[in-house]
Write a sequence for this structure.
């Protein structure tokens, strides 16, 4: 799982939805739980969500902290 971090310390990654059949980009504030990024759509394939995460992280100038 790739995790990116923004300048505020918020982390971003891809995760499955509740049914486990759709994927999106999620974020969490330090010490908090994961939440879906509303600006990013849901995908049927994890790879599509990962591509969206990379684009989102690049657009917002995040750094990769875990691969």
């Amino acid at each position: 799982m790739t995790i990116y971090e923004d300048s505020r310390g918020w982390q971003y990654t891809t995760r499955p939805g509740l049914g486990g059949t759709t994927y999106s980009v999620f974020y969490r504030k330090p010490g908090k739980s994961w939440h879906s990024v509303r600006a990013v759509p849901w995908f049927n394939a994890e790879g599509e969500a990962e591509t969206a995460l990379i684009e989102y992280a690049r657009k917002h100038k995040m750094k990769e902290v875990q691969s």
